[in-house]
Amino acid sequence: MPDRVPQLVDLPAPRQLKDHERALLEFVLKGPFVSDEVRAQAANVEVVGECDCGCRSVAIQTAPNSTPAPIVHPGYPRTDWVPLTAWGRSSEGTEIEITLHVVSGRLIELEIWDAWDSDRESKGELPELATLRHDSFD
């Protein structure tokens, strides 16, 4: 039987980012290759969906009048979809990936994934803020 693919499920109504979501987003925004347009979009995002697998990933929506963000990411071949990634460790020692997905110049998802390096399901762990570091591309 194939593994179930996690899905982002729409919320009944948009909500503001929770404190931990905002802190993770702000850290990613301090990383390399983040344009002023991306930062401007992030200031007004709303959460419109949550992942059904138990991880802390959320679908986000930018303000309708926000300017699409140009993304140039050396070491990454695409410009229509760009992942802006950071890493951290939970208090349990789990490696956690935090990826801000930018598609067609718009922020669409803050992925917070704690099961990428194992065959287990997500426990919904969050990284300790002091352990966060930005992704590096050679």
Structure overview:
It is a single chain. The chain is mainly beta and 138 residues long. It has one domain (9-134). Helix content is 13%, strand content 33%. It is globular. The termini are far apart.
> Order of strands in the sheet with the most strands?
1-2-3-6-5-4-7
Portion in strands: 25-35%
Principal-axis shape equals globular
Question: Could you tell me the number of beta strands?
Answer: 7
Give the total of domains: 1
The first-to-last residue Cα distance is 38 Å
Rg (C-alpha, Å): 15 Å
Structural class computed from helices and strand pairing: mainly beta
Major β-sheet profile: 7 strands, antiparallel
Furnish the topology, listing elements before pairings.
Layout: E1 8-15, H1 19-29, H2 36-42, E2 46-51, E3 58-61, E4 81-89, E5 95-103, E6 106-113, E7 133-134
Antiparallel strand pairs: 1-2, 2-3, 3-6, 4-5, 4-7, 5-6
What key attributes describe this structure?
138 residues, mainly beta, seven-stranded antiparallel beta sheet, 2 helices, 13% helix
Short description:
The chain is mainly beta.
